[in-house]
Amino acid sequence: MQEHTIALVAHDHKKSELIKWIKTHIEVMKKCKIVATGTTGKLIASETGLEVKRYQSGPLGGDQQIGALIAEGGLTALFFFWDPLNPAPHDPDVKALLRLCSVWNVPVACNSASADLMVTSPLFLSADYHPAKPNYERVD
Known about the structure:
Blueprint: E1 4-10, H1 15-24, H2 26-29, E2 32-36, H3 38-48, E3 52-54, H4 62-71, E4 77-81, H5 91-103, E5 108-109, H6 112-120
Parallel strand pairs: 1-2, 1-4, 2-3, 4-5
Helix pairs in contact: 1-3, 4-5
Protein name: Methylglyoxal synthase
GO molecular function: methylglyoxal synthase activity
Family: Belongs to the methylglyoxal synthase family.
């Protein structure tokens, strides 16, 4: 079975919503390799018992570390519960992370409704589904 790496990220005011969502979908989460930004990853591990590879906290470069994983083709999906009502000091990093998902055609969910739809899709974690990866090499 192919290993699927997903990133779980949440702004401070959305962490409890993410934890609740993870608990609802715990059986699916157990099938994934999980990476997360620092504080969120620590909370996920302590609240759910899931194994989580933790990067730096978002404002300290964690968003960019996950962005690098996307650019290297190492991420299956991003679940980023971001807070649209409380701007973060690292907002440019957040926008860059979401932009990279679009550039590399990586599925991204930004709230529990879109996350529900993503993980309940028959395509999620399917060995037969391979999203098209854009080819940005210039051919002259």
